[in-house]
Q: What sequence folds into this?
């Protein structure tokens, strides 16, 4: 994807009218590219596919947070999941800096939708678990097993918030 195509897609597809945010992405792609125009264009294309996935699968609020948060293309979707779980930008930036978002998913096309399930454990130490492109029934079964374990060990029920993704739960 060429620079002018990326700018147009940011504005028209993603609704980002902030020149500074677009410039941040362009500079970021330039910094991580290997110095060739081809690699730079490939980085822009990967970034746009990942941001388009966020547009297709998350709320407009999460998309806006994501377009203002330059990070590696394979960290964008996991970063969006953390934004959707309620984490602040500083926390998501810490997760990216510590390498906890690496090796995420980069979609093959910019119109892709998929299954992304999120489980956030609040205490004793906050953790977020993601399941990408897993059938909802498998994620629900895993949550049921986790709930059974939690009840046996902690003797308290799980809290379930409004859905953040096809299925989600917060373990107190």
A:
């Amino acid at each position: 994807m060429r620079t002018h195509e990326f700018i147009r897609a940011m504005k028209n597809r993603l609704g980002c009218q902030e020149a500074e945010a677009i410039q941040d992405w362009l500079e970021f792609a330039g910094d991580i590219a290997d110095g060739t125009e081809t690699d730079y264009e490939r980085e822009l294309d990967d970034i746009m596919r990942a941001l388009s996935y966020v547009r297709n699968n998350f709320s407009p609020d999460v998309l806006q947070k994501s377009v203002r948060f330059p990070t590696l293309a394979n960290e964008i979707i996991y970063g969006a999941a953390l934004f959707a779980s309620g984490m602040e930008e500083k926390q998501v930036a810490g997760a990216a800096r510590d390498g906890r978002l690496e090796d995420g998913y980069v979609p093959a096309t910019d119109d892709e939708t998929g299954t992304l399930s999120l489980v956030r454990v609040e205490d004793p130490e906050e953790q977020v678990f993601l399941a990408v492109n897993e059938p909802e029934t498998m994620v629900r079964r895993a949550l049921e097993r986790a709930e059974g374990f939690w009840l046996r060990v902690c003797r308290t029920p799980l809290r379930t918030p409004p859905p953040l993704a096809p299925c989600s739960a917060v373990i107190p």
The first strand starts at residue 116 and ends at 121.
